[in-house]
């Protein structure tokens, strides 16, 4: 029976090859190949037969229960690359010139331990020799033809493909995305790992390492000079944000008007919140657990992805472009060379966060560990790589030069003495009860807002189910604020901040302890499907922020209630509604 099965598979494969080379493909006006839908369906079916988890009941000692895979892997269906949308609903086509499913695929292998460790250095500290070498590598990469997967635009379009929903998931008609979940950190690590090795190979330098934009350090809070000259120039940047302008790592489309020293101190305090007090649990930092299939979808980014990641993409991109291209739009972001320095620092901070928690395994879920993606290496080979392959950067033979993380010692202080703040808030409540916002007559840990529009500040009073918790209890469970049912009516940029026990949120920001966190939604454009019936999953978003340490600093750990304020930024809440706010405890 085994022989019959393989004969059948070979026969089906021959049918597919014949169809693929026939005239059942059509060209659109842009000469882009579009497959007739039934061919795509047949292709997926045949590939499914070859899936590594496929077995039949004819195999010896195999039960029906054993036929079912122990877990379903999130991975792209390489046969499905199709048009997608830019952030402003303009069709974009990022797919490779030929289907990657037709290429030979090799499994990832760790670099040999005899290879030198590539040391990534802060971009503002590299020397002239390195800049010249990097310029040369970028120039060569930009000179390669588009059909070469090592070419600069092919590299940039990898980000476009995975960020705009150009792939379906394998064994599913759901689109695949790699932002706003626990896929964010490992996928980008894979991308810059291969990009770095390609650059090194183009100039024959096995020691070449990408620099990182050290925007969390005062000395690095400027666009590095090396990106203003030669091959690293991108004309599509906001000219008002070029040096000597200090970066606003919590940018919200509006200029704060802060002087250099104030902006730097605000940035440092913000980093403490995003890396320490607001990121004490894995999901808060890494993002929500996004899994395969329609039911596996989630939309809940971690602290660093929300900002500084999203904020700096927007801050660098040109204010003269509709979508703030290049860096400010997902489809074009990787066209700007500074993208790779930006994400190198994001990658470094993932290592730092792991070190802060003793390098204990953050996620042990096999569905995450075995999630699989595909990249071309320096030999133009298509490599299949799993998340479990990239969890230890030392095995990948790269490291980061040690720098001081000054934000570790930047724990914010309350803007108003807590006792005075509590008195002011109680007096204000007596004059104009917060509860009037939703006509809800009780105080509870779950405050329903019934889809209230976030076009103005929202204040609610929440009951805390647990008070006076011990140190061990706090370590075991993080108290969090959950803003749930966030519904953005159209694909739009949205940003709002969350404060706890704030007397006047208009006068304070991340430099004050009352600041709990920030929510940022970047326009994503994931709405074009390959075939009728393919799924674009749209669900309401949830924002979670840790407040255990914040409550200690506000002397509110023993209080039965807290006041929570949602503050929309830059007028971006007009297209957004919120179902409610509640307190939960995360293990």
Automatic annotation (TrEMBL):
This is Tyrosinase copper-binding domain-containing protein. InterPro entries: Di-copper_centre_dom_sf, Polyphenol_oxidase_C, Polyphenol_oxidase_cen, Tyrosinase/Hemocyanin, Tyrosinase_Cu-bd. Transmembrane segments: none annotated. GO terms for molecular function: catechol oxidase activity; metal ion binding. Belongs to the tyrosinase family. The keyword Iron does not apply. Its cofactor is Cu(2+). Residues 1-22 form the signal peptide. Residues 336-347 form the Tyrosinase copper-binding domain. Gene3D superfamilies: Di-copper center containing domain from catechol oxidase. Keywords: Copper, Disulfide bond, Metal-binding, Oxidoreductase, Signal, Thioether bond.
């Amino acid at each position: 029976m085994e022989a019959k099965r393989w004969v059948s598979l070979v026969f089906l494969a021959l049918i597919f090859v014949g169809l693929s080379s026939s005239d059942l493909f059509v060209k659109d006006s842009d000469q882009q190949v579009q497959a007739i839908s039934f061919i795509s369906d047949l292709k997926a079916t045949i590939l499914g037969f070859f899936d590594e988890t496929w077995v039949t009941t004819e195999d010896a000692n195999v039960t029906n229960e054993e036929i079912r895979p122990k877990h379903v892997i999130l991975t792209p269906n390489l046969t499905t690359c199709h048009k997608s949308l830019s952030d402003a609903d303009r069709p974009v086509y990022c797919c490779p010139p030929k289907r990657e499913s037709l290429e030979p695929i090799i499994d990832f292998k760790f670099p040999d331990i005899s290879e030198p460790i590539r040391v990534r250095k802060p971009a503002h500290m590299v020397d002239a020799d390195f800049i010249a070498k990097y310029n040369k590598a970028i120039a060569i990469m930009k000179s390669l033809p588009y059909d070469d997967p090592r070419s600069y635009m092919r590299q940039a379009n990898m980000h476009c493909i995975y960020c705009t929903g150009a792939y379906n998931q394998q064994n599913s008609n759901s689109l695949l995305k790699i932002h706003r979940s626990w896929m964010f950190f490992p996928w980008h690590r894979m991308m810059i790992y291969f990009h770095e090795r390609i650059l090194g190979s183009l100039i024959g330098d096995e020691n070449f390492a990408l620099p990182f934009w050290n925007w969390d350090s005062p000395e690095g809070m400027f666009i590095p000079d090396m990106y203003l000259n030669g091959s690293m120039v991108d004309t599509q940047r906001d000219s008002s944000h070029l040096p000597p302008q200090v970066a606003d790592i919590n940018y919200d489309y509006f200029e704060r008007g802060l002087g250099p020293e104030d902006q730097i101190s605000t940035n440092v305090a913000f980093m403490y919140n995003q890396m320490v007090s607001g990121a004490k649990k894995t999901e808060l930092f890494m993002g929500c657990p996004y899994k395969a299939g329609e039911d596996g979808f989630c939309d809940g980014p971690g602290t660093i992805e929300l900002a500084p990641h999203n904020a700096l993409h927007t801050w660098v991109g040109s204010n003269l472009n509709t979508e703030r291209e290049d860096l400010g739009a997902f489809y074009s972001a990787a066209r700007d060379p500074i993208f790779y320095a930006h994400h190198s620092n994001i990658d470094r901070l993932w290592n730092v966060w792991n070190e802060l928690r003793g390098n204990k395994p953050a996620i042990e879920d096999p569905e995450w560990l075995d999630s699989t993606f595909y990249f071309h290496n320096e030999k133009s080979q298509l490599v299949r790589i799993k998340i479990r392959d990239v969890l230890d950067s030392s095995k990948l033979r790269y490291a980061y030069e040690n720098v001081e993380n000054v934000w570790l010692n930047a724990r914010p202080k309350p803007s108003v003495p807590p006792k005075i703040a509590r008195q002011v808030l109680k007096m204000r409540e007596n004059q104009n009860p917060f509860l009037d916002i939703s006509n809800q007559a009780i105080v509870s840990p779950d405050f329903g807002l019934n889809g209230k529009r976030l076009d103005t500040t929202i204040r609610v009073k929440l009951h805390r189910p647990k008070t006076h918790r011990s140190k061990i209890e706090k370590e075991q469970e993080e108290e969090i604020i959950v803003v749930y049912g966030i519904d953005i009516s159209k694909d739009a940029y949205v940003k709002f901040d969350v404060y706890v026990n704030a007397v006047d949120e208009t006068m304070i920001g991340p430099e004050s302890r009352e600041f709990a966190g920030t929510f940022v939604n970047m326009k994503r454009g994931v709405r074009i499907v390959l075939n009728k019936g393919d799924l674009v999953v749209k669900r309401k978003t949830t924002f979670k922020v840790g407040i255990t340490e914040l409550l200690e600093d506000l002397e509110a750990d023993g209080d039965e209630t807290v006041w929570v304020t949602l503050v929309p930024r830059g007028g971006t809440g007009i297209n957004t509604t919120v179902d409610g706010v509640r307190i939960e405890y995360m293990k």
